[in-house]
Automatic annotation (TrEMBL):
It comes from the Bacteria. It comes from Amycolatopsis magusensis. InterPro entries: Acyl_CoA_acyltransferase, GNAT_dom. This is RimJ/RimL family protein N-acetyltransferase. Residues 7-171 form the N-acetyltransferase domain. Pfam families: Acetyltransf_3.
Length: 177
């Protein structure tokens, strides 16, 4: 169920700590994402070792290539509530050489399928910075539509940027043709 055409999604292992630390340090990953304050490798390692089980309300999965079984990024669905049937999605590919190769699209599709089929969600939402055109394109391609805009809510490179709220509802996810 967690396997797509290019990637599979799996639970994080303690051995993913080094990669997660490296990805956190990559300015391209952090460019359009909300950054946590810097974490040391020791802190990321501790976080991975102590991470609680994935649950309905807090699901984080490592994106692994199907071909080489290489860890390349992270996806998550958080804040799921049975009352609203909604959860929030986040995604990034930490390994730069895999960006632009269809892996992100596949990972988001697999996670959305899991959200709709296994978790019985009704809708999946996310925020994307308006200038993050590659991510916006991926979400549109998968069937996400705009729901709203938070004006000048994200500060980067000395400027304020708008954030766009997008969502895809059950039955709207675009499958590969
Ligand atoms: C966003 C991200 C997950 C997408 O994954 P990816 O594997 O790079 O994306 P894909 O290769 O599946 O698809 C990229 C699509 O965007 C298009 N694209 C690339 N750069 C673009 C740009 N500057 N403007 C518009 N479209 C662009 C590509 O042509 C491709 O579309 P196509 O398949 O129709 O040709 C990845 O680039 C990433 O991790 N970025 C850094 C972190 C981030 O911004 N995360 C999202 C936060 S909301």
């Amino acid at each position: 169920m967690l396997t797509g055409e290019l990637v599979r999604l799996r639970a994080l292992e303690p051995s993913d700590a080094e990669a997660l630390y490296r990805w956190n340090e990559d300015p391209e990953v952090g460019r359009w994402m909300i950054n946590e304050y810097p974490l040391s490798l020791a802190q990321v390692t501790e976080h991975c070792a102590q991470r609680r089980h994935n649950t309905y309300g807090d699901l984080s999965l490592c994106v692994e290539t199907l071909a080489e079984r290489r860890a390349i990024g992270l996806v998550s669905l958080t804040g799921a509530e049975p009352e609203s049937g909604r959860a929030d999605l986040d995604v990034y590919l930490g390994e730069a050489e895999f960006r632009g190769g269809g892996y992100g699209t596949d990972a988001v599709r697999v996670l959305c399928r899991y959200g709709f089929d296994a978790m019985r969600l009704h809708g999946i939402s996310l925020w994307v910075v308006a200038e993050n055109t590659a991510a916006y394109h991926v979400y549109r391609k998968l069937g996400f539509v705009e729901e709203g805009r938070k004006r000048e809510s994200f500060r980067r490179d000395g400027r304020w940027h708008d954030e766009i709220l997008m969502s895809v509802l059950e039955g709207e996810l675009v499958e590969p043709s």
